[in-house]
Amino acid sequence: MEIQGSLFDNIDETENGNNMRxxxxxxxxxxxxxxxxxxxxxxxxxxxxxYYVLNRPTISDQEFDRLMRELQDLEAAHxxxxxxxxxxxxxxSDLSQxxxxxAHERPMMSLGNSYSIEEVQDFLRRAKDGLGGEPVEIVGxxxxxxxxxxxxxERGRLLRAVTRGDGVRGDDxxxxxxxxxxxxxxxxKDADYPARFEVRGEILLPWASFERLNKERAYNEEPLFAxxxxxxxxxxxxxxxxxxxxxxxDARFYFLLGDNLPYSTHTEAMxxxxxxxxxxxxxxxxxxxxxxxxxxxxxxxxxxxxxxxTDGLVFKLNSLRQWLNLGATAKSPRWAIxxxxxxxxxxxxxxxxxxxxxxxxxxxxxxxxEPVLLSGTVVKRASLHNEDIIRQLDIHDGxxxxxxxxxxxxxxxxxxxxxxxxxxxxxxxxxxxxxVCGTPLQRVEGEAAWVCPNKWGCKPQITGRIEHFVGRHAMxxxxxxxxxxxxxxxxxxxxxxxxxxxxxxxxxxxxxRFQLKSAQRIMRGIEQSRQVPFERxxxxxxxxxxxxxxxxxxxxxxxxxxxxxxxxxxxxxxIPEIGPKIAxxxxxxxxxxxxxDIVERLxxxxxxxxxxxxxxxSRTTKLEGKKIVISGVFQHHSREEYKAMIEHNGxxxxxxxxxxxxxxxAGDNMGPAKLEKAQKLGIEIINEDQFLxxxx
Length: 696
Ligand code: AMP
Ligand code: ZN
Hints:
The structure is a single chain. By secondary structure, the protein is an alpha+beta fold. Among the domains are: 5-13 and 97-339, D-amino Acid Aminotransferase, Chain A, domain 1; 345-420, CATH 2.40.50.140; 534-616, 5' to 3' exonuclease, C-terminal subdomain (DNA polymerase, domain 1), CATH 1.10.150.20; 627-695, 3-Layer(aba) Sandwich (Rossmann fold), CATH 3.40.50.10190. It has 25 helices and 22 strands. It has a 5-stranded mixed β-sheet, with helices on both faces. A 5-stranded antiparallel β-sheet has the order 14-13-12-15-16, with no helix packed on it. The radius of gyration is 30 Å and the shape is globular. Mean pLDDT is 87; it is low at 1-27. It binds adenosine monophosphate (AMP) and zinc ion.
C-alpha cells in the first residue's frame, strides 16, 4: 500500500465502461421524472444511513415507505434508469444465485492470537525490533465475532462483496450483501473518498436478530444455530437474498486498503471510512502498556452489553508506514494481533442428573445445577450429551462443576473441581432403565447413545412421534404442541398418528380446558393434511434415519408406499443416497405389523400415498446421467423450477463447472468467471429455449 500521492491519482476515465454494476445512464437529458429518481435515491440512501448507522431517523417509517414506493413506481416506468444498487434493491430478490469465486486483490489473512498481557507485550517487542527500535503507537479495537467480508468500491459505488474463502479466493456474495441496510451502496456525493478502495470488516448477526431467528427455527423444527457467528456465515451464503434481507445482518469495518491512500494512520483511515457512512469498529489509541491492560479489563466486562457478539480485542500499530515496513508472515500480519477473551466460566454444584427421552428413544442426560449467572443469564441446566462424556469428565455425584457458555446457546460442563469433592462421592452412574417406562436401555454398537427400545409403549416416544407428524415440515397440522400431544395421549384419544384422523370437534372439546376455536383449528389442519405431498407423508411416519431429504429421495425413486413397503434392504440400498443403515431401518420399520396397520389407516383416511399423477407425468429420463450447471437470470421459469425440471428428467444439478459437466443452462448475465471456465473446458452452453425444447 502506498500512502503518498493524491487521492485521485488512480482515476482512469475509460476504466469502467463495461462494468456490470455501473448504472446505465439515460441517453437523453434527464426528464423531470428521471431527475426525481436520482433525487429519491439520494434521499433514501441518506435516510437509510440515519436509521441504520446513526440510529437517528429524521423521518417516520411511513414517510420512508412512501418515498420508497414513489421510487419503485418511477423505476418501473423508467427501465432505462434501472440500477442494481438502487435503494429499492435492498429488499432482495427471490432469484437464487450460485456463488462466483473471485480472487482477492490482496490476500485476506488471519491474525496471530494472544491470551495474556504478557503475550501482547511480546508482540509489541517483536514489532519494535522489526522496526529497528522505532517507537510505536498502539490502537485497541473490538474483535467482532462474525464472518469476514471484503467490499470493493469504485467511484463511490459498491463493485463487489467477497468472503474470505481460503484467503486467496472467496465467494462473491454481493447480491446478499446489498440487502444489509447499514452498508452504503453508494457513498454520499460530497464525501472525499478514493476512486477505488477496499474496506474489510465483519458481517454480524446482532444478538436480538440471532435470538429471534433461533426462536423461529425452533418453532419450525429446524436445527438451531449454535452462535451468531455461524448464523451470520450461514445467512451470507444463502441462495435467497429476500430471506437474507429478512434476517437482519449488520456489519462493522476495520481495514481500509487501496493504492495511494492519503492517510498516515489507521485511526485516520477509519475516521474517513466512518465519514463515508460505514459502521466502523470501536477504536482507541492506547498510550502505554498499562492503558492496554485497562482496555482489556474494561472491555471484558463491557462487551457483554454490546448488541453484537465479540470474542476478543485486536491490537494494531497505528502507523500505516510501519505496516508496510513490517509486512506479514505466511499467515498473518506482523503489525496486528488478536487478544482472545477466556470464555466465561463459573463453578457450581451439580444437584442431580435427569434423563430425557426423545422421539427416537435416545436418552439425553441433563445436569441440574445450583443456579449461576453466566453471560448475563441464569443457568440451571446443562447438557451432558451422553455417557462417554460423563466418563471423560469423570463426574461424581454432587461435584462442583465448571460451566461454560462459549458463545453457544446451550451451556456445557467442561470440568470438575476435584478439590471440592466430598470424601465418599461415587462416580455418576448412567441410568440402566428408561426413566419413563422402566424398560432396560440398549446401546447401539458404535454409537454413544443409550436408547429405550420400547418404541410403541414409551410415552415420550409416542407423543414425540405425534408432535413430529403434525410439524411444519411434515403434515403441518396447527394447534398440536407438546402439551396438547400429551393431553391427547393421556386422554386415550390418540395413541398413534393414525388416531388423529378419528378426532372430531366434539371429542376435542370434551377434553379439559379445550376451546372450541382450538378444536376447529386442529380439525382444519387435519383436513388440509390430506393434500400434503407423498414425500412429506414418508417423512411424517418417523422412520428412524429418514429425514426430510431422504424422504424426498425415496418418494422420487419409489413413487408409492406399497412399493416402498415391499422393498428389501438390497433394493433400497441400490437407490442413490440411501445407505445400508437407512435401508435396514426402513425394512425394520415396515416389518412391524402395527406400523403397517398405521399406513393402512392413513391411506383409508385419504393421505397421499403416492406421487401425484401430475408429478409422475412430468418425469422422464431425457437427462439421465447428465450433470448440469445453472447460471444467470431466466425469463420463462425461476431457477428453482429449472432445478426441479432437471431432477424430474433424470439429470443432476451441480454447482461448479468441471470437465464432468455435461452442459450449462445459461440465462442472462451469466457470471464472467463461469463463462471463461466453460469456454476453457469447451463445455456447451445452452439457453432457456434450447433447454425447454430438449424436454419437449
Ligand atoms: P481469527 O479468525 O480468530 O484468526 O481472527 C482473525 C479474524 O478476526 C479476521 O480475519 C477478521 O475477520 C476478524 N476480526 C474481527 N474484528 C476485527 C478487527 N477489529 N480487526 C481485524 N480483524 C477483526
Ligand atoms: Zn421408555
